[in-house]
Amino acid sequence: MNIPDDPFIQELLPEFVDTWLNDLEQMPQLIGEKNNADLYRMAHTLKGSCYQFGLTEIGDMGVALMELSKEDKWEEAGEMQPKLVKSFQDVKKYLEEKGFIS
Fold first, then answer.
1. SS3 letters for the chain?
2. Would you say residue 68 has pLDDT above 80?
């Protein structure tokens, strides 16, 4: 995790994490419907936005999820959801420990 020193980004990060935790609840439905377009779009957004916030490990998972979506690997994509949720929960815990969240 490489959180930028930019105070504006640090201020936005807690809400960013909470938003993603909420958005990831949609993944099982997208996977169940085999909705390549929306799952790919979610993964692409995940990748780009996480890289901007210094969450490179999660961004890398977004890249992997993009590939799984393109290759119709639905079971493997489904296994990514709990990993992503845990990763964001870990970031939230880190932010709490570092005082970014009061």
1. CCCCCCHHHHHHHHHHHHHHHHHHHHHHHHHHCCCHHHHHHHHHHHHHHHHHCCCHHHHHHHHHHHHHHHCCCHHHHHHHHHHHHHHHHHHHHHHHHCCCCC
2. yes
Please choose, from the candidates 75, 81, 41, the residue with its C-alpha nearest in 3D space to the C-alpha of residue 61: 81
* pLDDT band, residue 99 (cuts 50/70/90): confident
CA 37 to chain centre: 17
Mean local confidence (pLDDT), 72-81: 96
Closest-CA residue to 1 (of 75, 72, 94): 94
